[in-house]
Amino acid sequence: MPAPSNAVIAAFGATGTPVLLAGGKGGTWRVGDLAFKPVEFLPETRWRAEVLASLPESVDFRVPKPAKAATGDWAMEGWEASELVAGESDVDRQDEVLRAGIAFHAAIADLPRPSFLDTRDDPWSYGDRVAWEERAVQASPAAKALLTPLLEVRRPVELPSQVVHGDLPGNVLFADGLPPAVIDWPAYWRPTSWAYAVAVADALCWYGAGPPLVARWARLPEWGQMLVRALIYRIVTHDVASTWDTATSRAYRRAIDVVLA
């Protein structure tokens, strides 16, 4: 993806040569002490920036503070910017990822439901709605084979919802002497235990985690059902956004076997 233009860089008050950063979706650039990323859904970008800009400092987590363009908006020409935060992701520190998520969710627990959730339309939103029975399942044969045992055990749950971070794995950064940093926040309106279940499901699929991680967090409300919904969410999203291969199907099957054991 091309770097932000000089006009965009200047509008956010940055100086320097853009450097493409690793991770994410491959479109984030560092310019000076700011990170620039493409806007994916403008109402969400503006909402998130307002929240993060006013979020009090915490001893338990950090967040990147958003930068405002010279126009007074949080976005310009399809780009948003925020301060760079120190740290690296570490897929072996999943318990710490969840603890950072717990602290972050406690800090945003009183936010009202964002109205943009009703109109955001992307593979992740679709997967989330299918997982929570707000959309019918329409899946490829490969996805259906994985979804069938999960759909058979899914049952209604009654838990309070709040705004949550729907993609904690890889988006919690660790730096010596600093609280973990929570970045790249996609907002959802779900029970907090679902957000943690997504993190655990990802760890089971991609980061070598096993039953002990699932067991350590079994105290969370409706943990089994949250894990079922987390896997439905990820499988349906993958089915829409990507393609299937043997290794991917095997990774999901391994996680399903752990969750349903």
Task: Report what the structure shows.
There is one protein chain. Helix 5 (141-153) packs parallel to helix 9 (246-260) and helix 6 (192-206) packs across helix 8. This protein has 261 residues and is of the alpha+beta class. The model has no long low-confidence stretch (mean pLDDT 96). It is globular, with a radius of gyration of 19 Å. Strand 2 and strand 3 (34-38) form a beta hairpin. It folds into 2 domains: 6-83, 2-Layer Sandwich (Phosphorylase Kinase, domain 1); 94-260, Aminoglycoside phosphotransferase (APH), C-terminal lobe (Aminoglycoside 3'-phosphotransferase, Chain: A, domain 2, Alpha-Beta Complex). It has a 5-stranded antiparallel β-sheet with strand order 1-2-3-5-4. Strands 6-9 form a two-stranded antiparallel ribbon. Strands 7-8 form a two-stranded antiparallel sheet. Helix content is 42%, strand content 11%. The protein has 9 helices and 9 strands.
